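Lab meeting, item 3. Inverse folding demo.
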């Protein structure tokens, strides 16, 4: 399976390394050439020597997406630090390039719910998950007190 990850921060790099370790073909696109260092962390070799691909470019530019391999992607993960970028590029991946599985990291719970309800794009919201865990912890403390 070909996995394209946009954003090589902590989330994107971790997802990319895991997908590569599972034997998938993995390409990462990031606008910052220095973000490549995130991909090398924990590997015995460099990202490229391990079989990964890295492209420097802006996620919202079709030419960068094409250079990173979006036309071959089975899975697309938008994991930049910006909700707007993630949601727009996820829609581009789904609608323009026909990627079958599109996942967008979204920090705003309301946006994640709205876009997730529309179908097509799976949204992952760490903020919602953190709220759930804190609320559960509080409830457990109150219940056990």
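The presenter then showed the designed sequence:
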């Amino acid at each position: 399976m070909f996995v394209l990850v946009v954003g090589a921060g902590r989330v994107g790099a971790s997802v990319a390394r895991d997908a590569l370790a599972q034997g998938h073909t993995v390409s990462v696109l990031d606008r910052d050439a220095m973000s490549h260092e995130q991909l090398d962390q924990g590997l015995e070799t460099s990202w490229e020597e391990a079989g990964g691909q890295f492209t420097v470019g802006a996620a919202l530019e079709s030419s960068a997406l094409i250079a990173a391999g979006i036309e071959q992607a089975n899975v697309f993960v938008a994991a930049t630090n910006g909700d707007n970028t993630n949601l727009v590029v996820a829609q581009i991946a789904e609608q323009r390039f026909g990627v079958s599985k599109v996942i967008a990291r979204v920090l705003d719970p309301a946006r994640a719910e709205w876009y997730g309800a529309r179908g097509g794009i799976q949204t992952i919201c760490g903020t919602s998950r953190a709220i759930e865990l804190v609320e559960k912890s509080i409830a457990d403390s109150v219940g056990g007190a």
